[in-house]
Amino acid sequence: MRYVLQIAYDGTDFAGSQRQPAARTVQGELERAAAQIGTFSRVTLSGRTDAGVHAAAQVGQTDGETPVPPEKLAEVLSRQLPADVKVLKSALAPEGFDCTRAVRKKTYCYRFYCARTPHPLLARYAARMDRTPDRDAMRAVLPLLTGEHDFAAFRATGSSAKTTVRTLYELTADCIDLYGVPVYEIRVTGNGFLYNMVRILAGELYAVGCGIADASDVEKALRTGRRDLLYRTLPAEGLMLEQVDYGIPLFGEERP
Prior knowledge:
This protein is of the alpha+beta class. It is built from six helices and eleven strands. The radius of gyration is 19 Å and the shape is globular. The two termini are 29 Å apart. The relative contact order is 0.19.
């Protein structure tokens, strides 16, 4: 039987989501826990996340047999898991379901805060930046990046993607006050993302907000595919996978 899982994790102390020899990973912890309660194959995730990157609602699947009812599997697995990774929901997967290939949209949020001193309640989940950007300037370039584009300039070296064309359905830049600190949230929904694409995208919006870059730099980077025209890749701790959308309710919830 195939089971589908919704997983949350704090990526700070993981070497990434994908299993690696002699390294602590999300996949490794999930497979260790699954082995305690049944006979399961490997756990497959909807996509990999790098070391330090977090997830609020990653989706995974595993094939196997267990006496635990499908809807209770999340609770039982979580008892076997450490505090920084838990299975929030579980269910039998739809027939023919593949959590990697069936993805329609993903939503990521990148957070950074502006302060001279690292904040102990923010440091694990947001990057600290030195300068405070102009939110209106950041928002002014969002339409340039929304829609279908060749995002070759927004990928890091090492990307194995066959095509660099992606569609961004929604891109927002907001600022909230948290613990008396301005925290910026760049949220993006797309049909797929290149290696480090969201962190590069967030970095460029920050650069625009600080006057280091402008709309012409963004346009030229999209047109030429040149990574050197864009600002640096922002740190991993600010990135959170918030949602994986398959167009169907996987866990019995009603879609809005």
